[in-house]
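S.,

Sequence below, as promised.
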Amino acid sequence: SSMPEADQLQLIQYLRGKQIPLPVVILAGQGVSPSSTLVSAADECISRGPRLAERLAPGLRMAIERYRVVSTTTRENERLKRSEGRLRLIIEALPAGVVLVDHVGKILAMNLAGAALVGVAGPSDVVGRELYSLADAKGAQTLRDLVARALTGERTKVEFTCHGPDGENRHLVFDGLCIQREDSGQGSV
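The prediction came back faster than expected:
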């Protein structure tokens, strides 16, 4: 608390940047309110004043626990990012077309083989769009039902027509976890 606030913030940023495993507690002077930026950078902020001795131990325990939670979450997020990167590489390498959709049917990712199946130049042409926009009206409803059933773990076989931007209608068959063109044998998970 005797350091200027800018220096305190710089010190905290230095510790975080070096990944020094140390919870940071600010001990603020009585009647002093550190900025919200400084408080959010630290793990805990304890104000001096009456009954400091009673508040210090619980405050330090809280800082240690908050630090553990944040550190664990940060490590897990990094691990998930690496796993997601590996998954994307695997998906891209598959010869079968792959499309990943969220629970409402929005396309999150698609590999080149999947893009070829639906007749688009590349995944960027469809990522972010609804899967249902690739089919005719009847096929869109069929896909909605399919996604709903897939979310419950049910496997099913359905057929639908996909309209590619090249004007070609593609008759696709979804069987279990694989969508394939009847005429090509190519598949999409």
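The longest helix spans residues 52-93.

Coffee later?
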